[in-house]
Amino acid sequence: MTSTTTEQLSATTLLRFATAGSVDDGKSTLVGRLLHDSKSVLEDQLEAVERVSADRGQGAPDLALLTDGLRAEREQGITIDVAYRYFATARRRFILADTPGHVQYTRNMVTGASTAELAVVLVDARNGVVEQTRRHAAVAALLRVPQVVLAVNKMDLVGYQEVVFASIAEEFTSYASELGVPGWGPGGNPQENWCTAIPISALAGDNVVEPSANMDWYGGPTVLEHLETVPVSHDLTAYPARFPVQYVIRPQTAEHPDYRGYAGQIASGVLRVGEPVTVLPSGRSSVIEGIDALGESVDIAWAPQSVTLRLADDIDISRGDLIAPTASAPATTQDVVATVCHVADQPLTVGARVLLKHTTRTVKAIVKEIPSRLTLDDLSQHPNPGQLVANDIGRIAVRTAEPLALDAYADSRRTGSFLLIDPADGTTLAAGMAGDSFAAKTPTVQDDEGWNF
């Protein structure tokens, strides 16, 4: 790659996007077509795909093999795990997460979409909107993915009929409106054009990279053109500043006998020397005396830079504490109500003792209540289910042993999210999106294993 090309790519924006859809809707084929037609496939990779396809007796290369990398995926012809691919065009760089379509792998879709700025939801034109389509749309909405592309695939199998495409697009748009979209920008503010519908044939290449001659009734962008031009905001500075402490630096050398710095990555916002800050959960205040970045002192730093903060006062600060501007510091709470996607095989039950990991802080917690489970067919809430099993999406109330400085997920995807972890073996149980504080406050008690709540 020439230096000029390198400079051009470094100047382009980055889009993180995920693909989702029901089984056999053609996700992997679409991704393979994107990679192939945008000339992002190495020659030896293409040769390997052609060889495997020929061994199967297929007349043309099976482009789905470019993403279905696990042996079990190739043998079964399905996607099991999230496959990440990196490619670039002259206009934009991409990180793509190809997520599974099986209902038992919804948790994998949550993983892939959690950091995505756009989700491509595929629908088989022959089947229309099915339960998994609604499930993936609901997950995208719950995770507040800013943009969604509805890719109506296999249009070649329905004679490229406009009426089929229009009907599916209308049904999906209606369902999306019930989810409360259009999408969200900084601070939970709605933005227009959350969903863009595109009729495609991933197998034939219609409207994937090149416009289709078979659908002259469609005047919109191809999938790649939309991915290259959709507005993307990486402006984490639009959010209040949050600095989770990862490590305390105290070299105690002759050159720096009194140095004390707090290292970490700025999760959001901007920090400035001289700015009053509050350390949470202790609530103690100080002033930023210095900011060190890449070995040099700077006056200002912003997300997502990794820096070391020096404060004017000697405060007891350790890993897991959060430093925030005093004027916009979040409230702390031990009672958290959240929407979670349960990702473990073992059920999550009322009374379960768990670990809650929020940014760099991990605390003990107990599940106090499971008020509801989401029914994706009609978006109704099933009250008091008693437990959540793998791939369930539900509402829970958790009491933590120590206060947490949580933002609402509607205000910040980065500092409003958390994980629930099994304290016995470290298994991730659920991915959570924090809501309002739990109103039913309870006094601190100690259970029979010494966990304080």
Q: Average pLDDT, to the nearest integer?
A: 83
Provide the structure class: alpha+beta
Question: What is the β-strand count?
Answer: 25
Main sheet?
Answer: 8 strands, antiparallel
The CATH top-level class label of the largest domain: Alpha Beta
The CATH superfamily title of the largest domain: P-loop containing nucleotide triphosphate hydrolases
Q: Enumerate how many helices there are, as a single number.
A: 8
Gross morphology is globular
Would you identify the regions where 5 or more consecutive residues have pLDDT less than 50? 1-11, 69-80, 182-191, 436-445
What is CATH's topology name of the largest domain? Rossmann fold
**What is Rg?**
24 Å
The portion of residues forming beta strands comes to 25-35%
Give the N-to-C terminal Cα separation.
57 Å
Helix content estimate: 10-25%
Structural domain tally: 3
User: What's the architecture of the largest domain, going by CATH?
Assistant: 3-Layer(aba) Sandwich
Write out key terms for the chains shown.
453 residues; alpha+beta; Rossmann fold; Elongation Factor Tu (Ef-tu), domain 3; 3 domains; eight-stranded antiparallel beta sheet; six-stranded mixed beta sheet; 8 helices; 25 strands; 18% helix; 33% strand; globular; disordered N terminus
Account of the protein in words:
- The protein is an alpha+beta fold.
- It folds into three domains: 3-234, Rossmann fold (3-Layer(aba) Sandwich), CATH 3.40.50; 237-328, Elongation Factor Tu (Ef-tu), domain 3; 333-437, Elongation Factor Tu (Ef-tu), domain 3 (Beta Barrel).
- Helix content is 18%, strand content 33%.
- The chain has helices at residues 3-11, 27-37, 43-55, 71-76, 106-113, 131-142, 162-178, 223-229; strands at 13-21, 83-88, 92-98, 118-124, 147-153, 195-199, 243-244, 247-249, 261-265, 270-272, 276-280, 284-293, 296-298, 300-302, 306-311, 322-325, 333-342, 348-349, 353-358, 361-375, 380-383, 387-388, 393-404, 417-421, 428-437.
- The relative contact order is 0.10.
